Amino acid sequence: QKEVEQDPGPLSVPEGAIVSLNCTYSNSAFQYFMWYRQYSRKGPELLMYTYSSGNKEDGRFTAQVDKSSKYISLFIRDSQPSDSATYLCAMTSNTGNQFYFGTGTSLTVIP
Amino acid sequence: NAGVMQNPRHLVRRRGQEARLRCSPMKGHSHVYWYRQLPEEGLKFMVYLQKENIIDESGMPKERFSAEFPKEGPSILRIQQVVRGDSAAYFCASSPSGPEQYFGPGTRLTVT
Asked: Using one digit for the tens of pLDDT, what is the confidence trace for B44-100?
C-alpha cells in the first residue's frame, strides 16, 4: 500500500465550478499536510499547508484535513482556466525529514 | 529574492557517464531536499541535507548516487555511471525550516 493515494484524474470542469481534490494516506504519524500546484514542465508551487486536523482558507482555496479518516481535501471555488494544472498533495511527520507526495490530479478548467 | 535555482535545466548523458545536478537554495534557506519525478509516479523523496550534513538519505539508491551541500556553494546531486532508468526530472526544494518547501524548476536528465 502506498503511503499517499491520489486519484490521477483527469478532472475537467467548466469555469466557475467548485473543484474538490482529495488524498488518502496510511501513516498516522503525518502531521503536516501540503498542497502544491504544478504546471507542465515546471516545478511544484506551494499553495498552502495545514497542521493536524481542521480547515484553512486562502482566497479561493480551502484545505481540509480529517485525521480520523486519514483524508485530506483541497477545494477551489470559482475555478479559472489559469487553475488548469496538476495538483499534488504532500505530507510529513513532525520531524519533517521525508515528505510523501501523491501522484497528482490533473485539472482542466474549461472557459 | 531569487527563487530556487537549478542547473542545468536539461542534461543529456550517455550510459556510463556521470551526471552532476546543481541546486542553489533560496537566500536564507539552509535545508535542501532532492526529489525524482517520473511520469505517472509523482515526486519521490531522495535525500534531505542541511549545510555540510546529510540528514536523511533513505530515499536515495545506495549505489551510484551521492549528494552534498557544502558550506559554500550549491547542493550537488551526483549520479555516477548513469543508466537509462536514471532518466527523469530531478527537483530540489529548499526550506527555511518546517514544512514549507520551495521548488526549483528541475533538471531533466536524459540518458541515451
From this structure: 999 999 988 999 999 999 999 999 999 889 999 999 999 999 999 999 999 988 788
Q: Residues A14, A18, A20, CA angle at the centre, nearest 5°? A: 115
Cell of A27: 501513516
Residues 7 through 36 of chain B touching chain A, CB cutoff 8 Å: 33, 35
CA distances B31 to B52, B70, B75, Å, are 10, 12, 10
Question: Which candidate, A21, A36, A23, A16, places its Cα nearest to that of A77?
Answer: A16
> Among B58, B101, B106, whose Cβ lies nearest the Cβ of A99?
B101
Does residue B39 belong to the interface with chain A, where contact is any CB pair within 8 Å?
no
Q: How far is B12 from chain A (nearest CA, A)?
A: 17
